[in-house]
Structure formats: C-alpha cells, structure tokens
Amino acid sequence: MQESFHTVRTTIMLNADSNPKGMTKANRTRAQILDVAQRDASILGIDALTIGGLAKSCGLSKSGLNAHFGSKEALQLAVIDAAAMRFRIEVAEPALIAPPGRARLLAIMEYWIDWSQHPSRPGGCQLISAAFDFDGLQGVVRDSLNAWITQWRNGIKVCVSEANAVGNLKLEPEHTATLAFGTYMAQHIEWHLMKDETAPHRAMESWREAVGGHQRPTP
What is the pTM of this model? Predict the structure, then answer.
C-alpha cells in the first residue's frame, strides 16, 4: 500500500514537470473540453454526461467532440481520469507535504474539504457523486472509479500507519479511513444539498478529534 501511495507522488511530480507548450493543438482542445466536462459532471453527474450534451456546453459540433472521445463511455473514463489527476495535484500532493503524523492527517481532510468547495466544482466532487451512480453497475467506468477511490483510501491508511509510527498514536487504519470518508461525505451533503455553511468547520473539528488518537503509554 505504501508503495502505491508514493507512486502517486511520483506521478504528480512527473505531470507537474510536463510543458504545456509542448502539447499539440488537439491535446490542448481535449484538455479544454475535459475542463468543461468536469464542471458539467460536478453538477449533473458523470453518468449524465453525453457527447451531445457536452458538445453544446463547449460550443462544438457533436462530430467534433466524437473525434476526441468516440463514445459516451470513453468520455466518462476520460473525465474520471482527469478529475482524479486534478485531485492528486490539489489534494494528495499538498497533503503529502505536511510532515508524517497527525499534521498530515489533518492536511488530508483540510485539502479534501477545500476540493469539494472549489468554484470549478459547483456541485461538489465528481468522483464521490459518481460512486453513488455506479456502485450497483458493472463495467469499465465503475472499475475505473473504484480503482481511483480505492487508491485514495489506501493512501489514507498509509498515512494513518505513519502517524502511529511517528506520533505515538494507536489509530486503526481501516477504521480511520472509514471515518475519513464518512466525515468528508457528511460535510459534502450538508454543504451542497442542505446549504449548511457550518458543515466544513464541523467536519474538520470532528476529524481533528478523531485523529487526536489515544497516546500510547510512554515506556
């Protein structure tokens, strides 16, 4: 698990070093389309994305959009990958900069909550929302979504184990990862659906209390 999470760091660093000026016109157009698609997915859901609907949002012809993706399924997979890569850059990588221990666990939740409130995601996290749309289905879209979310959950467990080692805590990794997802999803619903402006603060305080942990007795 630890190796897979540090692979996330490497992937992000390689992505950050790439030169946008080296992109072809077709790749730049595709990236711009995916920006619009991620915003639409935040509001409508990834399952609701269609070639025709996105073409209208982008001001392109349906045939022009088809040239980039070819099918609704390919579009959905591309949006999942694009959102997950952005999540790595905006959430996972900054959280990993915090020192191992409780500080890193707090950073995970802080950046994660900020992610759900970003103006480019007016309806919240596309990936978490899609989990409810695809959890009862089968196919490559569900598999891709599951892989990304599992990778993030495994990363949280790695950080919990590190916190136990360096912070003299005794948090159970599986249990704490479940608490992390529950805390995040509660504030996501309360903020976006219920319009409760106190939700982020309450979620952060709940997480802060949860990862305070029980100190191991000093030998």
Answer: 0.84
What CA–CA distance (Å, rounded) separates 108 from 105? 5
Cβ contact 115:121 at 8 Å: yes
pLDDT band of 213, cuts 50, 70, 90? low
128: alpha, beta or left? (left if phi > 0; alpha if psi -120 to 50):
alpha
CA atoms within 13 A on the CB side of 111: 20
pLDDT(93) > 60 = yes
Q: Is 49 left (phi over 0), alpha (psi -120 to 50) or beta?
A: beta
Classify each residue of 8-45 as buried b or exposed e, where b means 16 or more C-beta atoms within 10 Å of its C-beta.
beeebeeeeeeeeeeeeeeeebbeebbeebbbbbbebb
Q: How many CB atoms lie within 10 A of CB 204?
A: 17
